[in-house]
């Protein structure tokens, strides 16, 4: 890590703050007990805000808060065991009135950070020796001092230094000298006794040598007078500053919006509960029935404290009757108590990230009047005297009549930006804000980085100096995931340049504001700097751009660009048409081919040409906008040919204007979203639910085109899996053009778990078509892709299309070619692949050993995923053998193969080491490793560790339980799993921390990596143990806590991945989950809403849960069509037609599902573990 990025990733340091020394007092006689007289700022009222709505983001010209002003209660300040500068016993930090240094790294790594009692901030000087000086308000005798090492680069630690004192700041006396000092690690504190103490008003730490290099850095420097009290006490700090300097997915040194934010910080002065309320604003705001409060908050992760103390904070309101909002039982938008302690205990806030909080004030306080806005900290979570906390607050808003969502159009609940405030360092989805038709051929997305082929739209992290995002283009995309990369990208960007517009992506960028941005499935719109408005509306094979230029612009231009030099465009000014091709793509865009484009402008161009400073194919077209301010471009695409792009234009765009294209897309989306109708949900819940349905229906994608007519369509496609011939030209592909429909863009390792079961339940007809679209890959290229991007990408473990299609078939989906799907799966399971991009790895030995050995990388993942797929093949074969449509001559073989694959699916026991109680990598000679840590990541486990693979046989839960010693032992294993913290400190085979580790840590549910797909079944594994109520607890906590942040581009706890993370929520909200993928069974969880109706062609599925709430989460009983249902599993046949499932809910655990016979069906019966068959061949065996 370079010195200029010396803050540890994910650790926040203080920025420069507006400070105040008013109210700093000597230590009280009772730890943490503060007296009102200690806070003279209480007697200095700030100017009142005007009556009515109130808002501020602390910018110049906006309401400014009181600084570090404790709230006065009837018995003095509302503050106990907390101080703004709490540190060591006898600390003099509260007396520090000035900090200067010989050098510092402004604005973030400044000398003032040494006095903040926060080890996550630091002082850094670009010199091998440097000094820092404290000035005290009153001369004091320091008898001890302590130094705390910073977050990284131990070579920068002070090695030799001298402590000096001065009465005037000019003449210095050495009072202590140290040489050869070492620190035990990062954030380590060394305490030293002063050898020659004296009384001084100034102290200076003179660092004369570091361990190596030319940089000095230090986190904290504390001085102590040796008294045994808690040190100098002061109010909790609340000051306006420039925002966090480091964190996940942020622009440093700004607020969430604007360039300022409010800093809160302090520390505990004793063990146990500590709290402090500070007064910010005096207001006069009547509370209506609709009044809401909203704000954003960024809690620091202080010194890696996994108790997350900074999250015990919230805004609060005081009313004229003397009551406080925090005492009235208000909940936030997710049903978590909105008080400071409630937010902390509810684990609803992510550390080192911005969070959005909103709550319905009118629900609990209608008729009252707000007279103060406060910030509170109330840590009831077992804090210690050493506990420090801090964070930032921005965008405070109190609204008496906030805008409501128009629910008559379900697309209004969808925010396509969910998951875009993310990165490769910490994922909150890693999505693009895509407009498209469901399962569409073409994506439209805004891009803030037009030259990227991965993270093309950054919500905040790449904002400009005014903290606004900058649009560089409205792009065509085909990205399945940023990790896979994009392909066939191009963009269109408007310009009001009076001369020739630039082709430079950064040069043509225009700022916009998320507040005026519209990102829906059917429509994207941004109001750009200069008064431009840019919009897109999607069709299937193209879409329409609409640009509205400002009144002052007599000329408007459009820049047509690609992300690199692999593409070109031609614009005919006279006819107002454009043609071209694009042939770019990431390294994992296997099987991609050239894309052809055809477009028509709504008028002839006044000028066309090469846009300078762009790529070789970058072009521009200018238009006379002196009277008609709108310029419209209808653009179509094809992978077959330029002529086919023209045909797609004629079929989908030529006779429709922007509004008609948008209306058609809206209708298509409302058709998909309207399948689920929910009652008992607030707007936040509906945004999460319908945005998740949008993501589910966005993937996979069609890659076929109509080469016939609208009346007599003929579907063909440029194959991503068949061999190419020759080279592509400017007008024709070199890909093999095939008849039929093919689908692409799916990572089956992710999607088999929830996406395919969700399609089967909600959209069985769609499921049938898209499944056959992947079987088409088998017909063309001999295999179904493990990761279709669009062809055979060599990534992830398991041939999981096997179990995905089997699950659809056994759940009643009418596959067009079930035998073809089955044959593709059997080939995956039995035939050695010709390359690593297809089929199963390690198959040459695993068939005979009975497990995938460590000769294959990520062997446990390959082995256990393979057995889940074998289970699906076995169940599919059994049903095919009885299917009347199956030819008679195939039935005996199917019956035999069903037995073979179902038996093979029990071989998970071959990877279980009973000596350690975990699934482990196993060598070909049968040995297990002797050095094993189940918390270590990587190695034999894909994107996970031994703990998260400890339950990786969900298809045979009874057999798995028996491996552990029975269902009680399985429950105990799960309990230990959920109580063992993930610390993200054991990278194991990865050698360094990967983003999945950090995301799993911040799930804060023990070892559960719910942020990654491989762990998504684990919360439901309690269904096998007779303790279904624990499944209900875990599932509801996940839904409540981990899908937050929709308002600010978050929404997910990790990579969303082709709708999988979304489908988990959708299915779980119904109270059911496909725990045994490949079977007709649905495991019971805990429904989210009071009523959900799934509108299906075969009859509605109605799920009722009257009285459901964030308190009443426990299932007391279930009936299906009026019949009592005791099992924790529901067979698909029970819900295949019109069905009503009634859940009785309560606030206490029940004995629902407690009997052994209530568990889901399992191939393993009784109490014995599976006894896999062994290969009869081999040395000594024939």
Report strand %.
25-35%
Q: Provide the helix percentage.
A: 10-25%
Q: Which CATH architecture of the domain at 411-674?
A: Distorted Sandwich
CATH class of the domain at 411-674: Mainly Beta
Biggest sheet overview: 8 strands, antiparallel
The order of strands across the largest sheet is 29-30-31-32-39-36-35-34
CATH topology of the domain at 411-674: Beta-galactosidase, Chain A, domain 5
For the terminal residues, how far apart are their CA atoms? 59 Å
What structural class do the secondary elements suggest?
alpha+beta
Which geometry do the CA atoms define?
globular
Number of alpha- plus pi-helical segments: 19
Instruction: Give the tally of β-strands.
Output: 58
Spans of at least 5 consecutive residues whose pLDDT stays below 50 are: 1-51
Our Rg estimate from Cα atoms comes to 32 Å
Overall residue-averaged pLDDT value: 94
Present the secondary structure layout.
Blueprint: E1 54-56, E2 72-73, E3 76-77, E4 79-80, E5 82-83, E6 96-101, E7 123-125, E8 130-141, E9 144-148, E10 158-166, E11 173-178, E12 189-193, E13 199-210, E14 216-218, E15 220-224, E16 237-241, E17 261-268, E18 274-286, E19 292-299, E20 313-319, H1 340-345, E21 355-360, H2 362-365, E22 369-379, E23 388-399, E24 443-447, E25 470-471, E26 473-477, E27 490-495, H3 505-508, E28 510-511, E29 518-520, E30 523-527, E31 533-538, E32 542-548, E33 555-562, E34 567-572, E35 577-582, E36 595-601, E37 607-610, E38 619-624, E39 630-638, H4 642-652, H5 658-673, E40 676-679, H6 683-698, E41 701-702, E42 704-706, E43 715-718, E44 737-739, E45 743-744, E46 746-747, H7 748-751, H8 755-762, H9 764-781, E47 787-788, E48 792-793, H10 801-810, H11 818-830, H12 843-849, H13 859-882, H14 891-904, E49 912-913, E50 918-919, H15 957-964, H16 967-979, H17 995-1001, H18 1028-1041, H19 1060-1069, E51 1072-1073, E52 1081-1084, E53 1091-1094, E54 1101-1104, E55 1114-1120, E56 1123-1125, E57 1129-1131, E58 1139-1146
Parallel strand pairs: 54-58
Antiparallel strand pairs: 1-23, 2-3, 4-18, 5-17, 6-8, 7-14, 8-13, 9-12, 9-15, 10-11, 10-13, 16-17, 17-23, 18-22, 19-21, 19-23, 20-22, 24-26, 25-28, 26-27, 27-33, 29-30, 30-31, 31-32, 32-39, 33-38, 34-35, 35-36, 36-39, 37-38, 40-53, 41-45, 42-43, 43-44, 46-47, 47-48, 49-50, 51-52, 52-57, 53-54, ...
Helix pairs in contact: 6-19, 8-9, 8-10, 9-11, 10-11, 10-13, 11-13, 13-14, 15-16
């Amino acid at each position: 890590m370079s010195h200029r990025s010396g803050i540890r990733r994910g650790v926040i340091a203080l920025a420069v703050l507006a400070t105040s020394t008013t109210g700093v007092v000597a230590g009280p006689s009772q730890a943490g007990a503060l007296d009102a007289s200690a806070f003279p700022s209480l007697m200095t009222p700030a100017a009142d805000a005007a009556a009515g709505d109130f808002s501020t983001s602390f910018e110049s010209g906006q309401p400014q808060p009181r600084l570090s002003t404790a709230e006065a209660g009837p018995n003095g300040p509302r503050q106990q065991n907390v101080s703004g500068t709490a540190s060591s016993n006898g600390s003099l930090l509260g007396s520090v009135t000035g900090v200067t240094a010989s050098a510092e790294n402004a604005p973030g790594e400044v000398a003032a950070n040494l006095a903040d009692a926060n080890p996550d901030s630091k002082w850094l000087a670009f010199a091998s020796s440097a000094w820092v000086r404290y000035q005290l308000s009153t001369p004091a005798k320091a008898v001890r001092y302590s130094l705390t090492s910073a977050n990284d680069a131990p070579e920068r630690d002070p090695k030799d230094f001298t402590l000096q004192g001065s009465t005037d700041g000019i003449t210095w006396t050495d009072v202590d000298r140290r040489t050869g000092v070492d620190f035990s690690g990062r954030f380590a504190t060394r305490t030293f006794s002063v050898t020659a103490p004296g009384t001084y008003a100034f102290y200076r730490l003179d660092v004369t040598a570091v361990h190596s290099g030319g940089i000095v850095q230090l986190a904290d420097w504390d001085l102590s007078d040796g008294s045994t009290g808690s040190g100098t006490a002061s109010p909790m700090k609340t000051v306006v500053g420039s925002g966090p300097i480091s964190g996940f997915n942020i622009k440093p040194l700004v607020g969430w919006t604007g360039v300022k934010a409010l800093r809160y910080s302090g520390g505990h002065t004793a063990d146990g509960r500590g709290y402090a309320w500070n007064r910010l604003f005096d207001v006069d705001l009547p509370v209506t029935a609709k009044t809401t409060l909203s704000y954003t908050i960024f809690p620091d992760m202080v010194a890696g404290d996994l108790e997350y103390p900074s999250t015990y904070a919230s805004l609060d309101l005081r009313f004229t009757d003397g009551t406080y909002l925090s005492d009235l039982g208000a909940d936030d938008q997710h049903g978590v108590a909105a008080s400071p302690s409630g937010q902390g205990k509810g684990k609803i806030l992510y550390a080192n990230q911005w969070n959005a909080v909103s709550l319905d004030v009118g629900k609990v306080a209608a008729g009252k009047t707000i007279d103060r806005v406060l910030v509170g900290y109330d840590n009831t979570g077992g804090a210690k005297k050493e506990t420090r906390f801090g964070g930032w607050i921005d965008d405070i808003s109190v609204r008496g009549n906030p805008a409501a969502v128009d629910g008559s159009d379900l697309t209004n609940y969808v925010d396509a930006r969910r998951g875009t405030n993310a990165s490769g360092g910490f994922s909150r989805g890693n999505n693009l804000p895509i407009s498209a038709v469901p399962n569409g051929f073409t994506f439209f997305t805004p891009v803030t980085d037009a030259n990227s082929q991965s993270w093309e739209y950054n919500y905040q992290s790449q904002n400009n100096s005014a903290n606004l995002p900058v649009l560089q283009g409205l792009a065509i995309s085909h990205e399945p995931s940023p990790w896979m990369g994009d392909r066939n990208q191009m963009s269109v960007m408007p310009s009001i340049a009076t001369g020739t517009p630039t082709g430079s992506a950064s040069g043509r960028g225009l700022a916009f504001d998320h507040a005026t941005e519209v990102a829906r499935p059917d429509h994207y719109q941004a109001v750009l700097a200069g008064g431009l408005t840019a919009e897109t509306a999607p069709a299937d094979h193209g879409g329409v751009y609409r640009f509205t230029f400002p009144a002052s612009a007599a000329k408007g231009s459009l820049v047509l660009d690609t992300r690199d030099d692999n593409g070109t465009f031609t614009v005919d000014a006279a006819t107002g048409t454009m043609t071209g091709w694009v042939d770019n793509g990431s390294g994992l865009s296997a099987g991609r081919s050239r894309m052809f484009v055809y477009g028509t402008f709504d008028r002839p161009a006044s000028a066309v040409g090469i846009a300078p400073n762009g790529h070789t194919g970058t072009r521009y077209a200018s238009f006379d906008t002196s009277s008609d301010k709108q310029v419209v471009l209808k653009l179509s695409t094809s992978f077959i040919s330029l002529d086919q792009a023209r045909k797609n234009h004629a079929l989908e765009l030529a006779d429709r204007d922007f509004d008609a294209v948008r209306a058609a897309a809206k209708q298509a989306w409302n058709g998909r979203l309207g399948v689920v109708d929910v009652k008992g949900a607030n707007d936040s819940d509906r945004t999460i639910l319908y945005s998740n349905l949008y993501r589910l229906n966005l993937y996979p994608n069609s890659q076929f085109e109509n080469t016939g007519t609208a009346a007599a369509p003929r579907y063909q496609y440029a194959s991503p899996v068949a061999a190419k011939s020759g080279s592509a030209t400017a007008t024709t592909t070199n890909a093999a053009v095939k008849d039929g429909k093919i689908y692409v863009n799916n990572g089956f390792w992710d999607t088999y778990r929830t996406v395919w079961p969700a399609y089967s339940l909600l959209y069985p007809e769609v499921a049938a078509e898209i499944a056959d679209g992947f079987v088409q890959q088998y017909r063309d290229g001999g295999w179904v892709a493990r990761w279709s991007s669009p062809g055979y990408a060599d990534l992830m473990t398991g041939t999981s299309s096997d179990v995905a299609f089997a699950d659809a078939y056994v759940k009643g989906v009418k596959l067009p070619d079930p035998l073809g799907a089955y044959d593709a799966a059997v080939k995956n399971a039995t035939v050695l692949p010709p390359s690593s991009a297809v089929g199963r790895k390690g198959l040459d030995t695993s068939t005979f050993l009975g497990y995938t050995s460590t000769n294959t990388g990520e062997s446990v993942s390959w082995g256990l995923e393979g057995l889940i797929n074998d289970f699906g093949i076995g169940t599919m074969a059994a049903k095919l053998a009885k299917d009347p449509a199956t030819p008679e001559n195939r039935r005996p073989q199917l019956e035999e193969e069903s037995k073979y694959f179902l038996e093979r699916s029990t071989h998970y026991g071959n990877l279980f080491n009973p000596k350690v109680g975990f699934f482990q990598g196993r060598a070909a000679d049968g040995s297990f490793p002797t050095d094993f840590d189940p918390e270590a990541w990587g190695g034999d486990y894909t994107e996970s560790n031994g703990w998260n693979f400890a339950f990786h046989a969900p298809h045979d839960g009874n057999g798995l339980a028996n491996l552990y010693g029975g269902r009680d032992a399985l429950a105990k294993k799960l309990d230990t799993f959920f109580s063992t913290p993930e610390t993200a400190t054991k990278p194991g085979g990865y050698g360094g921390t990967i983003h999945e580790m950090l995301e799993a840590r911040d799930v804060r549910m023990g070892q559960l990596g719910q942020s990654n797909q491989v762990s998504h079944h684990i919360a439901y594994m309690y269904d096998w143990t007779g303790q279904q109520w624990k499944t209900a607890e875990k599932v509801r906590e996940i839904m409540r806590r981990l899908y937050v942040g929709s308002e600010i581009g978050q929404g997910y706890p990790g990579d969303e991945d082709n709708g999988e993370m979304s489908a988990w929520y959708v299915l779980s909200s119904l109270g059911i989950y496909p725990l045994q993928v490949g079977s007709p069974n649905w495991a019971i969880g805990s429904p989210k809403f009071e009523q959900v109706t799934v509108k299906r062609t075969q009859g509605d599925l109605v799920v009722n849960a009257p009285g459901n709430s964030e308190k009443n989460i426990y299932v007391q009983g279930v009936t299906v069509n009026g019949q009592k249902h005791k099992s924790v599993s529901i067979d698909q046949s029970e819900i295949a037609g019109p069905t009503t499932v009634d859940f009785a809910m309560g606030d206490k655990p029940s004995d629902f599902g407690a009997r052994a016979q209530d568990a889901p069906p399992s191939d393993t019966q009784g109490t014995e573990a599976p006894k896999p068959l062994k290969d009869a061949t081999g040395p000594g065996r024939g």
